Amino acid sequence: MNETWVTVTGNVATDVTWRRTTTGSVANFRLMSNERRFDAQSGSWNDGNRLAVRVTCWRSLAENVRMSITKGDPVVVHGKLFTSDYEQEGVRRTSTEIDAKSVGLDLRKVCTKVVVLQEADVDDGRGPVDVSGLTTVEDDLEPPRYGDLTGSAVGLAPAPTDDDLGREPLAS
Q1: Burial (CB count within 10 angstroms: exposed 0-12, middle 13-18, buried 19+), residue 69
Q2: How many other CB atoms are there within 10 angstroms of residue 137's CB atom?
Q3: Is the CB of residue 111 less than 8 Å from the CB of residue 122?
Q4: What SS3 state is found at 94?
Q5: pTM greater than the 0.85 cutoff
Q6: Contacts of 40 by beta carbon, 8 Å cutoff, 6+ apart
Q7: Structural domains in the chain?
Q8: Which SS3 state, helix, strand or coil, does residue 59 take?
Q9: Distance between CA atoms of 140 and 106, rounded to whole angstroms?
């Protein structure tokens, strides 16, 4: 059987739902993607076609999506595209779905910091860092220059230190 692989960019349209199953964790959310076209005559952007898909993530991807993605986030999803037919109140319906293999934030629209999670059997108490205090980078701000590697990136608060988080520093 042929598989159709796609990569879709868009925004998370619903809260992420998560649950444990007998085969592992599963997370779901709806992804909305709108085509945007520039109308040269009016000088404005117009909405075009819209795509709405249900995204399903399994196992470790589900765990990471649950901790990282929230409604409204711009994301890039890569996975297998398929449709499901079902019946609801006597009406046949079709749902477009992606069985995700990768999900990430769209870095054209947001900045992020990588947090490497520890293996389950090596718990040193250093879970994900709370980055809710960081500020958003506006589109009209210039990114930092390659030659300027000191300080923090434009529009971001400095990364929290172990002292800020009340943690003991890791031994080198």
Answers
A1: buried
A2: 15
A3: no
A4: strand
A5: no
A6: none
A7: 4-105 (2.40.50.140), 111-172 (no CATH)
A8: helix
A9: 17
